[in-house]
Design goal:
Blueprint (H helix, E strand, L loop, with lengths): L12 E5 L5 E6 H5 L3 E6 L7 H11 L1 H6 L2 E7 L3 H8 L14 E4 L4 H5 L18 E6 L5 E7 L7 H17 L18 H11 L4
Parallel strand pairs: 3-4, 4-5
Antiparallel strand pairs: 1-2, 1-5, 3-6, 6-7
Length: 207
């Protein structure tokens, strides 16, 4: 697995199901996230078990993410036709319903390989060849600022995705860094020795 934090997010053009349900033969990441923040999140397969809970959880936060200027793209190795079938399956039947973000079809596994998260199998719970449960947060310049990968049985907390974007935007706006456990509205820290001392004097016991 490669580390992409601090590097340009690999671009890709693949078939996809768009947020409005349109089947697109060519969805280009760079075109669709230009000037925006973005979340590119990978999951192993459609019509599985942990995955639908994550995709629905992401959709439940899509209004908040849109307010923050964030474009969301889900990616797995399934075809856009399978994505569409899963999207058209009700949640009480194991589907994800009409999620309001793009689902990209990485049928040739090129995206998973470019992002360094194609499973090799081995001791992991993942079968070889699927995308790992990975999340990439990308800034407005197209640079990866956060990369988190879970093993297959461990579902992600989508509130943490929102928190990390809040933190990134706070840093960009204020120039202050975000200490452990920081949430929007909390005190930040000046990135110098005095700033660390001041912050810890008032907050160390609460960390």
């Amino acid at each position: 697995m490669s580390v992409l934090v601090g590097k340009k997010a690999p671009d890709f053009t693949v078939p996809a199901v768009l947020a409005d349900g349109t089947l697109a033969d060519e969805f280009n990441l760079a075109e669709n996230i230009k000037g925006k923040y973005a979340v590119v999140f990978f999951y192993p397969l459609d019509f599985t078990f942990v995955c639908p809970s994550e995709l629905i959880a992401m959709d439940n936060r899509i209004d908040k993410l849109k307010e923050m200027g964030v474009e969301v793209v889900g990616v797995s190795i399934d075809s856009h036709f399978t994505h569409n079938a899963w999207r058209n399956t009700p949640t009480d039947k194991g589907g994800i319903g009409q999620v309001r973000y793009t689902l990209a079809a990485d049928m040739e596994h090129s995206i998973a390989k470019a992002y360094g998260i194609e499973s090799e199998g081995g001791d992991s719970y993942y079968p070889a060849g699927v995308a790992m449960r990975a999340t990439f947060i990308i800034d407005q310049k197209g640079v990866v600022r956060s990369q988190i990968v879970n093993d297959e049985p461990l579902g992600r907390n989508m509130d943490e995705v929102v928190r990390l974007i809040d933190g990134l935007q706070f840093f960009e706006e204020n120039g202050q860094v975000c200490p452990a456990g920081w949430n929007k509205g909390d005190e930040g820290m000046k990135a110098d020795s005095d700033g660390v001392a001041t912050y810890l004097a008032g907050n160390a016991a609460k960390l």
